Amino acid sequence: MQPDTAGAEVVEARIKGAAIQPFFAWYAQQWGPERLRQAVAGMTESLGSCFDLDEEHMGVLPSAWYPAPSLHALLDRLLASHTAAERELITRDGARAIIESTLKGVYRWLFEAMMSPERYGRNAQELFSRYHEAGTMIKEPIGESGHLTIVRDWPGHHPLLCEFLIHTADYVYTALGCRNVKIRRVACVATGHPDCRFEVTWS
Q1: What is the separation, in whole angstroms, between the first and last Cα of the chain?
Q2: I need a surface site. Which of 13, 36, 49, 150 has the fewest CB within 10 A?
Q3: How far is CA 173 from CA 37, 51, 114, in A?
Q4: Neighbours of 62 (CB within 10 A)
């Protein structure tokens, strides 16, 4: 963190490579790596310097942290080149690629330790913090078969990343044994709300 002109500390938002590399891999398979390279090549040097055009997945490593503004700029460039229908596909299947990587990859042990919606609700912050710095995720019970997810103080927020959270919730709760999972967005900072919220209910 660095001090601002008033002397207060400013959080430098960062995103773990594991949170976005699986999406880049999926995107390159879907539309070709050249389209991804073109998006990076068109970025300013200050934003694009953390990427490597000559490396697979633009050099993004699962274990490294990356500045959120650079990833945001790349996501914006990618989304701008697609139709509305394609953006829906990107949101849904991109999220699937990320969560499938989580369930099979380096954080599989953490997910397996949860094994139930109740434990997931208690430990959601730990998993969120593995991918995003900073931000707070809490899950409040909705009756006996539901959670209200609240994400606040998330300087790395991006509309697509927020949509990824919602879509991955569908896959996560299903993997935890929940049936008839239904998700409803309640609020998002992108639409002027103070935090992001969505409800998950199941049977």
Answers
A1: 43
A2: 49
A3: 34, 33, 11
A4: 16
CATH number of 113-201: 3.90.1520.10
9, 32, 191, 194 from 186: Cα distances, Å: 31, 35, 11, 12
CA angle, 130 then 132 then 133, to 5°: 105
Which residues are within 8 A (CB) of 3 and not within 5 positions of it... i.e. 6 or more apart? 9, 10
All structural domains of the chain with their residue ranges: 2-104, 113-201
Cβ–Cβ contacts within 10 Å for residue 53, how many?
13
**Tens-place pLDDT, residues 159-174:** 999 999 999 999 889 8
Q: Which residues pair with 198 in a beta bridge?
A: 149, 185
d(CA 131, CA 150): 16
pLDDT tens readout for residues 110-140: 666 667 899 889 888 988 998 999 999 999 9
**Tokens standing for residue 164:** 């990824």
Q: Tokens at residue 110, please? A: 């953490």
CA distances from 88 to 74, 79, 112, 167, 200 (A): 17, 10, 29, 11, 20
2 and 10 in contact (C-beta within 8 Å)? Answer: yes
